[in-house]
Specification:
Three copies of one chain form a homotrimer. The first copy, chain A, has two domains: 143 residues, Thiol Ester Dehydrase, Chain A; 160 residues, Hotdog Thioesterase (Thiol Ester Dehydrase, Chain A). In chain A, 30% of the residues lie in helices and 31% in strands. The first copy, chain A, is built from six helices and 13 strands. Chain A has a six-stranded antiparallel beta barrel. In chain A, helix 2 packs antiparallel against helix 5. The N terminus of chain A is likely disordered.
Amino acid sequence: MSASQAREAASPLQLCRIMRPDDANIVGNVHGGIILKMIEEAGCIVGTRHCNTQSGDRGVAALVRVEKTEFLFPVFIGEVAHVTAEITYTSKHSLEVQVKVMAENILTGAKKLANKAALWYVPCSLQNVDKIMQVPPIKYASAEQEEEGKKRYEAQKMERLETKARIEEVVPPPPNPEQHTVGFSQSSLIHLVGPSDCTLHHYVHGGVTMKLMDEVAGIVAARHCNTNIVTASVDAINFHRKINKGCVVTVTGRMTFASNKSMEIEVLVDASPLMEKGKEKYRAVSAFFTFISLDKDNRPLPVPPLKIDGEEEQRRFEEGKARYLHNKAKRLADKEAAAHQN
Amino acid sequence: MSASQAREAASPLQLCRIMRPDDANIVGNVHGGIILKMIEEAGCIVGTRHCNTQSGDRGVAALVRVEKTEFLFPVFIGEVAHVTAEITYTSKHSLEVQVKVMAENILTGAKKLANKAALWYVPCSLQNVDKIMQVPPIKYASAEQEEEGKKRYEAQKMERLETKARIEEVVPPPPNPEQHTVGFSQSSLIHLVGPSDCTLHHYVHGGVTMKLMDEVAGIVAARHCNTNIVTASVDAINFHRKINKGCVVTVTGRMTFASNKSMEIEVLVDASPLMEKGKEKYRAVSAFFTFISLDKDNRPLPVPPLKIDGEEEQRRFEEGKARYLHNKAKRLADKEAAAHQN
Amino acid sequence: MSASQAREAASPLQLCRIMRPDDANIVGNVHGGIILKMIEEAGCIVGTRHCNTQSGDRGVAALVRVEKTEFLFPVFIGEVAHVTAEITYTSKHSLEVQVKVMAENILTGAKKLANKAALWYVPCSLQNVDKIMQVPPIKYASAEQEEEGKKRYEAQKMERLETKARIEEVVPPPPNPEQHTVGFSQSSLIHLVGPSDCTLHHYVHGGVTMKLMDEVAGIVAARHCNTNIVTASVDAINFHRKINKGCVVTVTGRMTFASNKSMEIEVLVDASPLMEKGKEKYRAVSAFFTFISLDKDNRPLPVPPLKIDGEEEQRRFEEGKARYLHNKAKRLADKEAAAHQN
């Protein structure tokens, strides 16, 4: 590799696109899933490019984890979303990409930070997808920067080891469920994996899966409130198993918890190979999405309480509440820390 | 209206498009739903254009019925599908469009007739979508031609009056269903209606709905046989109720009957307005799709028998069998009639 | 506008995307129309952003002309296309955007210059689309740079004044045309303008129109040679009239000239408002596309001679030949000039 190639491999990648009507809901808010898909595309490009700056097998960066992501500002039709992705840490077999999304209104010049995300990739060899390639090290601006990256790496590694895919079964809702119950808003979509879902190898891009997950979660939220809803945040997602071309994926969303201002929806992704006899359906990913309800001026609306039925739902509600309180406390602590720094 | 406009309105419409990878399944067969969507787009354009050649309200041709449609030859990625649509009959408030699909292999020059369809449209006023506009009469080449059109018109009118939307409930399959049972292959998808799904008056194009129906039916068929499956035919479809922007549609397919060479799948489409409180879910369309299973050389494969459980499934199986035998007899009669004519 | 906004408005815009299977033909070559659409999107963003750095009406940069564009290298599925757009000249009411497309193979690190283009935009007020807004002046690096921009501006202005839209009628081909005649490969497609075709106002983006034109021209070329064909160049295109939402566009391609290595295809775009009575179909754009035929190793193949029938075809053939010889001479002269400079 030439010196200029190495410099480039480490340099950030910029990607932008005008948001179209098809990217948004009927009041013009761009779906969170569209943003997640763009983020992952940028991460995949910058990661794949970096891993191929060495000799040996060619490989593709496969998404294994997305850290908790907050949607800071809604994006609208006609705005330009600018996505910047940069490799911020490399371990022997994985790399971290940090991504920032700015939304620009090109009619007024106004800009806002819409999103920040951190993604972890591992390079899979194209010759043998089960082989994880080595990742060429990046250069850090300072020893401190490397040290912090290492901490993030250790933390996510621990979490990935501890967190198994949620193996809970999807139970179909009872017939004629009452409004505001879990069964009332539970929704499933199925999607037949197409060629454009898996461009570089024969596996579905993580971004495609996240877009489907956000779509189902949004339908669950809208069914619960009958208002305009938007993605507020997504908890860390671990991509346990790859989804192959020729699979049909079933994406199910069910509400686990609602505070008076937000809803937590658990999304479970199951893949089943359509044309391979005897191959069983398997759980590929699971995640928790948080949605909020907005009025026509984009101000938060109260969320109807979630009616709980049975022990299982009660347990999931308590767990969701714990996550909600934990996140709330963390946000407060972060705010205070920031205030002290100033 | 100028003379040239009148000529244009009455003249057939030609539309063509290269079939792309995303239009097809993994072995390269273009989905029947893609063809149905193209057919309906051509019909909608030719119908809308014709209905606006008069003064008064502007309107959009809304699909109310598709006659039984046979898929004669599979279409492949890279082929060009040519769709020709022509208005063949007009009553006071409706019009018939006949559509032909030729598939052309542009590498070899080979052409084949892939599909023929007949669609009925009524013009809805843009000022008030519940108002049906009058249809300007077309000129017929002969009195005989008009007479035949009138017969087709009367026949479909009678059938539409007689046929109610199937009101049968969708029952979720039991947990862990046995292979080759109805519950094993039953599938549902949900789709949030987007701007590109809708016509100029904010209602879902009939072709978009048919594409979703074919998609679900195809997944049901593939789950039953685990082979490459293709749409063989679609029974007449009546579009009872319009689907509005901002709805979520649930499309469910379940196998009703299987002969040793084909599968009949009932597809039920339910719409629920997401943001209008108190508006109930309603059945918008229902239809029967027939699929066949093909080997890698596109030759028919035997279909595993359908395991029936319970009275309801038995009744649907008998009804499906009756339709199957009726269609088979009709095909034979048509063939003989054709032979006698020659 | 703040100082930082002004700096940004003048700074180049970067846009990139992985090429997907749907962007390409069956041998994996990305369609020229996909590249043209990306180029125009980048130009529209950078132009619209610049024109809104002043106070007064908000406006959108509408494409009025694309200079002759050469496709230097084919782009493939899986490659990342990087589009860089920069404003290079501003007159009182128009601006020039120069765009460069680099294709990067992220598996090998290889990069190639795929395309260079120059586009002219005028800003239309959103309050009144028939009002052309003033364009804020850019700063030039040198007086020479400004002088050269002015020359390009004058040259294109003259050409736009001289060049009328080709008013030639589209004549349907005869039934059963002989192979390699003009009628044999002539093709038309129609497209109903949808919301995502016109994101920022109610008019179709120039890039959407160019994509459709390239699609039809590609079908004409493939029908003539029955081989893998790619876009080699597009002659300057003037966008005479805007195309409104709710129109149906008919795009027709017919071969005008073939040398032993290339084919010239004339593409005519007609728009007809579907629902406005009395509004006639009108010619919106016309252009000449040049295609070449490639073997499986992407080497040029000979093109079958075009069989000419009648005076009209003969006249168009002679005109096409003149353009072909003129372009060839110009390429040679450019090459020599470049050689002399070194």
